[in-house]
UniProtKB/TrEMBL annotation:
Pfam families: OsmC (PF02566). PANTHER family: PROTEIN YHFA. Gene3D superfamilies: 3.30.300.20. This is OsmC family protein. NCBIfam families: PRK10738.1.
Length: 140
């Protein structure tokens, strides 16, 4: 896997990132850090990627378990250290899984498998952060 991140120039703290799969993403800094607040911060991108990684796992595991999953949202709330390096110290994942007749035990198992075995991002972040999760099932 390879990505390239390029600074857009001296007028701010915005960066253009190109993924190995050819996608472009813009990141920006907070105004107090010289940014213009026009795009997500790099650490927000870390959370976004982690949320995508675990949601992907949960949906795939539920589909393979022959569950009628129709939607999956995950909200991540994180706390960071107060001093440098400001690593994540706590991250809570809240899943809202929508489907028909979803089994609670199967949803719980899918989330657990993602966090303990499959989601490289959350497993990596667990090296510095306390990871917790909760979920709700919505019929639909």
């Amino acid at each position: 896997m390879e990505v390239k991140v390029s600074w857009n120039g001296p007028s701010g703290m915005d960066f253009r990132a190109q993924t190995g799969s050819g996608h472009l993403v813009t990141m920006d800094g907070a105004p107090e850090a010289g940014g213009h607040n026009l795009a997500p911060r790099p650490m927000e991108m870390v959370l976004l990627g982690t949320g995508g990684c675990t949601a992907f796992d949960v949906v795939l595991i539920l589909q393979r378990s022959r569950e009628d999953v129709r939607g999956c949202d995950v909200t991540l709330k994180a706390e960071r250290a107060e001093t440098e390096p400001k690593v994540f110290t706590r991250i809570h994942f809240h899943f809202t899984v929508t489907g028909r007749n979803l089994k609670t035990a199967t949803v719980e198992r899918a989330i657990k498998l993602s966090h303990e075995k499959y989601c490289s991002a959350s497993i990596m972040l667990a090296k510095t952060a306390e990871i917790t999760h909760s979920f709700e099932i919505v019929e639909g």
